[in-house]
Task: structure prediction
Amino acid sequence: MPTASDYDARRVSDAEAADGSVLRDLGSALPKLSTAVVDDDPNDASFFELPGADLSSEELSVTVIPQRADEFTCSSCFLVQHRSRLRSSSGGRMICADCM
Ligand SMILES: [Zn+2]
Result:
């Protein structure tokens, strides 16, 4: 029966066309994603390496000065300040002039 075979063939071709369009969409999207990842990897590596080198050199150059006898650490802003800026020391809490 030629009509039945023609009907079946048309259905198969329609399904193939639909599958083809879906595969084409996936095919166009996948290369974009892969190229984007490939482009980001080298940029990220170089971007993270440079700040890391700068931070390590900065860390070495920073000098930690210990708190002196005439200084105190404010209990509110946690800044080490001179005794002359101490405004309140009640209850063990040292409050500087800025935090009063
Ligand atoms: Zn303070």
